[in-house]
């Protein structure tokens, strides 16, 4: 629905990853405890969401950072990631563009990976692992088994900062935003 409206108005076509980025930012804004890091003997709560997104390049993965992601629309997030990813592949990112992230997304869905465990990028306290979208049987509201699309999402947390209850609240918000993209 969003892509139909966007294209009809001369806008861009969004990818699933664009929705994931925006939903992650909205969920982190709703549960700000995930946007924190462990600093020595204290927890540092970050005032802004600097979203790191893993990008595959020939040498492996890099994680360019979208600064102040909470101030950006889905259109702005998509455009910024496209620019950063292009420059990453051309080896034109500056060190500053790959540092200072407060939360990371690693999406291996495009590689057909169903699920995986992502490793936290210190000093961050959380990373999301996004798997591929697959068609699976689901039960609808009428109790019928119908084809549905499912995507596995995992979250690794530094438990010095984010306990299971906070992680669950964040994932619940993320799920709500992903299942209702118009939000």
Main features:
5-stranded mixed beta sheet, single chain, alpha/beta, 183 residues, two-stranded antiparallel ribbon
Per DSSP, what share of the residues sits in E-state strands of 2 or more residues? 25-35%
Point out poorly predicted stretches: none
Order of helices and strands: HHEEEEEEHEEEH
Strand order of the largest sheet: 6-3-7-8-9
Indicate the radius of gyration in whole angstroms.
Answer: 17 Å
Please, how many helices?
4
Total beta-strand segments: 9
Give helix % range. 25-40%
**How would you classify the helix and strand content by structural class?**
alpha/beta
Instruction: Give the end-to-end Cα distance, rounded to a whole number of Å.
Output: 12 Å
**Oligomer designation:** single chain
Described by strand count, sense and barrel closure, the largest sheet is: 5 strands, mixed
Q: Outline, from the CA principal axes?
A: globular
What average pLDDT do the residues reach? 95
Outline the fold blueprint.
Elements lengths: L1 H7 L7 H15 L5 E4 L2 E4 L5 E3 L1 E3 L2 E3 L2 E2 L7 H16 L13 E5 L18 E14 L5 E13 L6 H16 L4
Parallel strand pairs: 3-7, 7-8
Antiparallel strand pairs: 1-2, 3-6, 4-5, 8-9
Structure description:
It is built from four helices and nine strands; from the N terminus they run H-H-E-E-E-E-E-E-H-E-E-E-H. By secondary structure, it is of the alpha/beta class. A hairpin with a 5-residue loop joins strand 8 (126-139) and strand 9. It is globular, with a radius of gyration of 17 Å. The protein starts with a helix and ends with a helix.
């Amino acid at each position: 629905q969003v892509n139909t409206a966007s294209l009809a108005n001369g806008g861009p076509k969004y990818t699933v990853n664009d929705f994931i980025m925006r939903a992650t930012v909205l969920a982190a804004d709703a549960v700000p405890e995930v946007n924190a890091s462990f600093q020595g003997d204290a927890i540092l709560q970050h005032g802004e969401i600097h979203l790191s997104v893993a990008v595959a390049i020939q040498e492996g993965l890099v994680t360019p950072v979208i600064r102040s992601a909470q101030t950006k629309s889905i259109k702005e997030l998509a455009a910024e990631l496209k620019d950063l990813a292009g420059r990453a592949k051309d080896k034109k990112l500056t060190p500053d563009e790959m540092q200072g992230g407060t939360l990371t997304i690693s999406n291996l869905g495009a590689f057909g990976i169903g699920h995986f465990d992502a490793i936290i990028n210190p000093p961050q306290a959380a990373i999301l692992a996004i798997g591929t979208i697959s068609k699976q049987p689901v039960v609808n509201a009428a109790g019928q088994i119908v084809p549905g699309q499912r995507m596995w999402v995992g979250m690794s947390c530094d438990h010095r900062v984010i306990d299971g209850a906070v992680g669950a609240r964040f994932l619940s918000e993320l799920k709500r935003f992903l299942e209702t993209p118009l939000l």
